[in-house]
Structure formats: structure tokens, C-alpha cells
Specification:
single chain; elongated; mainly alpha; 108 residues
Length: 108
């Protein structure tokens, strides 16, 4: 499919800007609190939707850079979600262990 070169340049610029914005947010949140706040997850959800759009437009226009950008954004979103799930699991396990320790101390 032959696309308008101005539109293609705009899409490439938007993909690069999205990647840079996502990278800045990830480094800011993980460097600051070692986790992404729940309120900021909406921003990453919107960026993941942008990844889907870049992937689809890259496939339609047969542009490998847009395809790579879309896949990278989706993988980054998956890693952020996996980090959230693992950190919640670890936090719950820690609380359960503390409660078990308190119960065993109370029995003694």
C-alpha cells in the first residue's frame, strides 16, 4: 500500500515520541518508588493502545519500523503488568508470613 509520505513521516515521529515518553515514564516511576503507581497505570494503558495502533499501521503500510515500535510497546506493557502482579504476590506473601509469625508468637 502506498501511503502519503507526510502521513508516514508523522506516524514515524509519533512512534519515536511515544517510545521516548514511555521510556521516561518507566525510568521515572521505577527509579523513584520501584513500582508504577495505580493512578499512572492509565497512562501506560493508553500507550499500550498506541502500540497496537502502530503495529496495525506498520502491518498495513508494510513498514518494519512501525511494526517494531508496536511490538516493543506491547512487550514493555506486558513487563510492567508482570511486575505489578509479581510485586502484589510478594507483598501478600510477606503479610501472610508476618501474620503467621504473630500467631506463633501469641501461642508461646
Amino acid at each position: 500500500m502506498i501511503a502519503d509520505p507526510l502521513l508516514l513521516k508523522a506516524m514515524l515521529f509519533a512512534a519515536k515520541a511515544t517510545l521516548i515518553f514511555q521510556a521516561c515514564l518507566v525510568f521515572y516511576f521505577f527509579g523513584k518508588d520501584e513500582e508504577v503507581p495505580y493512578a499512572a497505570r492509565n497512562i501506560f494503558f493508553i500507550l499500550a493502545n498506541a502500540g497496537c495502533l502502530f503495529l496495525a499501521s506498520g502491518i498495513i503500510q508494510e513498514n518494519s519500523f512501525l511494526i517494531k515500535c508496536g511490538i516493543f510497546i506491547l512487550i514493555a506493557q506486558g513487563m510492567i503488568d508482570a511486575h505489578l502482579i509479581i510485586s502484589k504476590y510478594e507483598r501478600i506473601k510477606k503479610i501472610e508470613k508476618e501474620l503467621e509469625d504473630e500467631k506463633s508468637d501469641a501461642k508461646k
